[in-house]
Structures are given as C-alpha cells and as structure tokens.
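My current task is to audit a protein record that another person submitted. My question to you is simply how this chain folds and whether the tokens agree. This is what I was given:
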Amino acid sequence: MSAVTSEVREDGICIVTMSHPPVNALTVQGWFDVASALDAAGADPRVKVVVLRAEGKGYNAGVDIKEMQNTTGFDALIGANKGCYAAFKAVYECAVPVIAAVNGFCVGGGVGLVGNADIVVAAENAYFGVPEVKQGALGAATHMARLVPQQMMRALYFTAATIPATELHRFGSVYRLAPPEQLLEVALEVAASIAEKDGRVIRAAKEALNGIEPVDVNKSYRFEQGFTFELNLAGVSDELRDDFAGTDKAKK
C-alpha cells in the first residue's frame, strides 16, 4: 500500500496526503510516490492548486533510516537521494501552486518539500529543522534557506536546532498559522482563493515565477548531495546512523 494518496476535488483543489506511521519517515518508494502524485496533479487539467499534507503526529521526518540500515551496500542511500531529489523537484516544478500544510514536526526531507512549496500553512505547534549533520549527511540547506535568512539557516544547520512555525510566520515564509485541528480547513481556504482564478493564468504565473528565481534549487540541492556521498564513502555516515538508530531503539 502506498504511503501517498491523492484526491482531486470538483473545485480544482488536489489534496495529496502522506501517511507512513509512526513518524512519516518515507522509504525510497515513498519519496518517488510523492513525486508521482505531484507530477500527476500538475498534468491533470482539472487541477488548479495542490495541498500537500500529512496524517499522523508529524508532517515528515525525512528518510527512513531503518530502511537504509537494513540494506546492504549503497542501494538504499542512492535510492533515498534520488527519491528526495525527485520529490523536491516535483513540488517545485508542479505546473500549479503547491501549498504545504504542515502539522507537528517537519525535519530533514520534510524541509525539502516545504522549502520548495509555493505557500506554507502551518499548525501553531509545528516546527522545522535540518538535523542531517547529526546523522552524517547533508542536504535541504537549499530549502531551509528559502524559509529563513542566510545566517539563521547556517545556525540551524550547524547546530541541528529546530525553529517553530511562529518564528517562520514572523519571517513571512509561513503564510498562515492555524490551530492544529483547523490546519486542513485553513489550507483549503487558501487553496480556494487560488482555485477561483482562471487555471490557465495560474499555470502561467507558476511558470513565470519559477523562471525568475535567483537560485536553481535543483542544481543547488544536487550539489549538497555530493557531500553526503563523500561522507558515506568515508564511513562517517554509517557510524553516525548506527549511533542514531541505537539511540532511537533505546527510547522505544
């Protein structure tokens, strides 16, 4: 069963939902499923806007480290890198605007999705972070830099600290805050204000805004991934992932 489902409503809003308990840490296939859902939504002439949301206690906890630890060789690592790249790219290049409706925690790969979204709506208790340095990987700095100022991004990246949605709202990168129980309602309200417009104009506007971006997010993220491969080849990543997995198991 796929961790990603998609529903196209009569008003032109497509709701894409991620659900992979317990923490929405997506497998390799899960990341490609996100990409496929966004690609399909953009290719559907009925769709004017996408709401990318999640079920459960958090929005996204990044890649499934357990899958990586239980796979010999580098297949899972390469798959996760390619899957994340495809998913982030699909969000950014979706032919229609993508609204990220963020509940709870949004870390690692979750920031990659949200940072490439057009609009972010978040629950008042949501928080964001890129803890990659603790696990011997790099990535999503490209996307965190779209949510916070440069020095703030570097501080969050080096310290692996998190930042609350309320702060991102102050920076302007979170468009609307909502009580957790009203998150989808608020996201759909924002989506409806887009869906009422002419779809041809909305699609042209999305393409135009992407065309004037000062940073090529796809190339920037791919550059980051190169350092993740270096750390893996050096054995650093395995060591830190083993420590993380051991700590995680101890908690359970």
Observations:
- The chain has eleven helices and nine strands.
